[in-house]
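agent> step 3/5: call structure_predict on target 'Aconitate hydratase' (Marmoricola endophyticus).
agent> reason: downstream docking stage needs a structural representation; sequence fetched in step 2, passing through unchanged.
tool.input:
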Amino acid sequence: MASKDSFGAKSTLEVDGKGYEMFRLDAVAGDGLDVASLPYSLKVLLENLLRTEDGENITADDIKALAGWDADADPDKEIQFTPARVIMQDFTGVPCIVDLATMREAMSDLGGDPEKINPLAPAEMVIDHSVIADVFGTPEAFERNVEIEYERNKERYQFLRWGQGAFSDFKVVPPGTGIVHQVNIEHLARVAFTREVDGETQVYPDTLVGTDSHTTMVNGIGVLGWGVGGIEAEAAMLGQPVSMLIPRVVGFKLSGALPEGSTATDLVLTITEMLREHGVVGKFVEFHGEGVSALPLANRATIGNMSPEFGSTAAIFPVDEETIKYLALTGRDEEQLHLVEAYAKEQGLWHDTTVEGYVEPRFSESLELDLADVVPSLAGPKRPQDRISLSDAAQTFDTAVQDYAEDASATTDVTLSDGTSFTLENGAVTIAAITSCTNTSNPSVMIGAALLAKNAVEKGLTRKPWVKTSLAPGSKVVSDYYERAGLTPYLDKLGFNLVGYGCTTCIGNSGPLIPEVSQAVQESDLAVVSVLSGNRNFEGRINPDVKMNYLASPPLVVAYALAGSMKVDLLNDPLGQDEDGNDVFMRDIWPSASDIEEVVASAIDTEMFTDEYASVFAGDERWKSLDTPEGKTFAWDEDSTYVRKPTYFDGMPAEPEPVTDVEGARILLKLGDSVTTDHISPAGAIKKDAPAGRYLAEQGVEQRDFNSYGSRRGNHEVMIRGTFANIRLRNQIAPGTEGGFTRDFTDGGEVTSVFEASEHYIEQGIPLVVLAGKEYGSGSSRDWAAKGTALLGVKVVIAESYERIHRSNLIGMGVLPLQFPAGKTAEDLGLKGEEVLSVSGITALNDGAIPSTVTVKVEPAPGSDESHGETSEFEATVRIDTPGEASYYRNGGILQFVLRNLLAQSA
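tool.output (status=ok):
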């Protein structure tokens, strides 16, 4: 709560006869302070500092530094950002609530008040990551998948219902409702946030952090927020500001309009390619220009959603008339609409390039795109930024498949249980999934897919029999407008039956392939393909049988289900034949923009949103009938394999112990470039012969009930065994292996699982190091990528470069992120992975300093041919970037820091 107002910014805003307390941006004035030309995103941060100024954590100098932002300077000024709220999904949210429950016990053990552990900022969770597309292609698919979801996740859901009752200001959107980011933009987001403070109703910009990297979808409606690890989110819930450097802001100017045949998905894949190539990691991206006004809100949300794919912290659009229209369409009341518009205009946050006095924002860097240049596109086969023009897709596949198939021309004959026979080959589309909030929130592409399905059915086309098809909208509103437009039967006819309201295929919950297809793929080692309207297509993510994955718009997903192969050129080859034997091409069934707009206008209205969201937190009878534990502390079930009390606070003293240097460490993994959090964090199915599978079997769990790693994130015993276990991970210490393997130097260098090796190192008190290349930890904001790393005994990671969220999360778990000297790699420094490493200079942190570098001593491996070789050294850059991060590291992690602070307050 602010106790200072150095600039006299506190004022009153009158809207519809009601007064709101606000902090005026134009009050910050003086030499060198140009608030009017600040980017929209930095104005939002400036208001945040004005309102939370306390003279200690946030000072008048901090406010001046932001108001006088030098667009050309490299970030070096730390500020404390206090988000208005926190949003979570269940995979990342369950461990958050597990940790809060554990902190309550730890607080009690240390003699403090356990109820001090309580969200101080509103926290909302949407359960959307648990439903799996097990059943597909039938009218019963949705009901059956929800039944299976509850059977698998009963313990987790009971725990979350306990949390909803035990913690104040924590709400849960139950299963079967929608995807977190779509529910956020359609219902939860306020844009202008209000809260009672000292008897006054304050109004300020809606801001947030979320436990999912695609939290940035809400940037599309002018709300500043981004994804953080669960550990950072927990700290934010407990009132801790997010420590950050004032970022560089990249201005992205839009002009023109999308051409006929190009979709919002094609646009976002183009932007992703441009921004990833430009380099925006750690920066804000802000869209501006006359093209913004012509861009529908749903398209803006699609672009914002993909911010992690191009690496930026946020990708934001300012508030304008289109924002107000969208808020009205989605059922926000008149009072809120008037408040959003009045507040944005009063604060200079309103975007309208046509008004007199409009000030062009200044930016650190600039890019520009004419929307007319956007062409139909896909991205793949393994990264979202690898855009391919649809016209080149078949040709580029023929080249790419060489890296995935021993025999590019291999085929195998398959007969399904119903007697259907066909020949399966490399490039066969075995999954076609309309999935992910990225696109399912966008009516134009969703209606486009349904109209293409209608046109295909009327031409007599069907999906190929080897394709697993699925439809998983991000909210029930999509089903409503499909029904009203009469389009559902056509999607059903092609096998795109509703499978659930959740992320499904986009996060790896694709469920198994058609059994006979799966068997054929495995036996013949075919490089088959998934095509999905998602945002992630990393190796091993979508399905263990599928080696190549392509992102595409929903209409193209339907088209590829009809084509059945990536080898088909959709622009020139027929998709099939009509009843008269005539070839049918995609151009014959592709709906026009006017066709789509007509259906959107006639089939979607505000009542759909108000009806579907009227009781969004209530849940169905399954949710309401769950047995729910009671009490302010959770009664842990020792037999539970889903929710277990973690060990982070075991034996934790009230005061932190001094930081020590690292001596005699061994290297657990040596990894290459672009290792994502999907490679590190446990995700997807749990294999029977994997360490996690063996653990569950020892607990009496049948393989059919293993469920996914994501569903078991509340059990650290499962998660630690799945860390660094991705089937596509390549550890250079154990050449010739793929998956979670390493060499155990406590056992003569024998190849074993990463988990089993780490157990031996921990038993002998040997610290561990991970070596990596460029962009280490890119991808989702998976806190378990850092939690698992820490629990395996890793004390230091040395990489060529980091993605923002994972570096922050490592510090939050007490793991030191270091960077190789500029331009140097592990190979340049002669590191093979067998050496013994020691790191000195870390102890400078005990004196309150952040050392810019530390010394890494490299000794040859004991007992090796080189063991009598010379010891070498190199200086590694310390990637603790802010004093706040240094405090977290000194305390052994962010949660320990927060717990000790709250303990001191309750003393």
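agent> step 4/5: record observation. DSSP finds 31 helices and 34 strands in the chain.
agent> proceeding.
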